[in-house]
Write a structure and sequence with these properties.
147 residues, two-stranded antiparallel sheet, 2 strands, 3% strand, globular
Length: 147
């Protein structure tokens, strides 16, 4: 069946999803707050690379940008934000539709994003300094989290 990354269209597919998601979150009155401080000019490309690696693609993000620790630290120290998370997940579901994804890959991608948003990215509410060093990007497949 190949990887989720391949089924989602490879690097080009990941970029389509990342661009669609980014457009949707910037238009959302709650989620856009997370980007009010600004963001990297290549945010969508970096996000696509991160998701691609997590979903069975090449280790491009780890080789060029950072590890899981750096990603989780960016999302930490902001206190609980369940409503923002819920809306970010809804934006992702809509972005999958925008990118033309259908089941079963659409559901696997949504499961991955929901898991990442509500677990690893939401684990360290108190401080980014609480995030351990050296975390590896979790890998997700058709069967869920790979252990």
């Amino acid at each position: 069946m190949g990887s989720v990354f391949e089924a989602a269209g490879g690097a080009a597919g990941m970029l389509r999803i990342a661009e669609a998601w980014h457009a949707r979150v910037l238009a959302d009155e709650v989620v856009s707050h997370a980007f009010s401080h600004g963001y990297h000019p290549r945010h969508s490309e970096r996000l696509a690379s991160y998701w691609g690696e997590a979903l069975g693609g090449p280790a491009e993000y780890s080789a060029s940008t950072g590890d899981e620790t750096s990603v989780v630290r960016m999302h930490s120290g902001n206190g609980p934000h369940e409503e923002m998370d819920r809306r970010a997940i809804a934006c992702f579901a809509a972005a999958l539709d925008d990118a033309g994804l259908t089941d079963p890959v659409r559901q696997v991608l949504l499961d991955y994003f929901t898991w990442a948003t509500t677990t690893t990215m939401a684990r360290y509410h108190g401080s980014a300094d609480d995030v351990p060093a050296g975390l590896a990007i979790p890998r997700w497949s058709w069967d869920g989290l790979q252990r």
